[in-house]
Amino acid sequence: MVLELVPKAPKPQAQNSSEAIVYVHTTMKGVQLGLVLGSTIGVLYSLIRLKRLMFSKIAQGINYGIIFGVVATDLMTYYRLSGSNLEKNQGRAYRIERNSNQNVIDNFTFGGMFLGQFTFAQVLSQNITKIAFMKIYTGGLIGFWLGAAYLKLK
User: What is the spatial distance between Cα 15 and Cα 21, in angstroms, rounded to a whole number?
Assistant: First the structure.
């Protein structure tokens, strides 16, 4: 979704913003990693330690998961990009832009996060500020899994 706003270069050598494209891509992967890993850890923690499902612990797990995912993927990207030459980075950015399956997953995740904010507003309308992120996370997770299912069935 974000990468679709950047004009696509006709060949890898013409790629001007290769590092930015790779960073946007890996940051999105970090968010997706945090959504999946954080929600899994939050559910497990809630069920094992508290013996019941607590959405606040799931949201807390997702918060930590997203922070960990974004920091870890961006650090790995930094070390990977700093250790390679310009042509390799341009090639990576060129392939990322043209990977239609990855763009589908990103679009579904972003769309789910956006729609989740509005869709769950009526269902979870007790305290808007307290559950705003939970709605975004839920929408993002649903979008991520719908995107994966779409690609599997495609």
Answer: 10
d(CA 135, CA 115): 9
Its pTM surpasses 0.85: no
What are the tokens at 79?
């070390």
In angstroms, rounded to a whole number, what is the distance separating the alpha carbons of residues 93 and 117? Answer: 31
Range of the domain at 73: 16-98
Q: Does 43 map to a domain?
A: yes
Q: What is the pLDDT of residues 74-96, one digit of tens each?
A: 999 999 888 888 888 888 888 88
Q: Are residues 53 and 64 in the same domain?
A: yes
Structure tokens at 147: 């995107």
- Please say if the pLDDT value at position 29 is more than 80: yes
- Considering the domain architecture, whether residues 48 and 106 belong to the same structural domain is answered as no
Structural domains of the chain, count: 2
Question: How far is Cα 42 from Cα 22, in angstroms, rounded to an integer?
Answer: 29
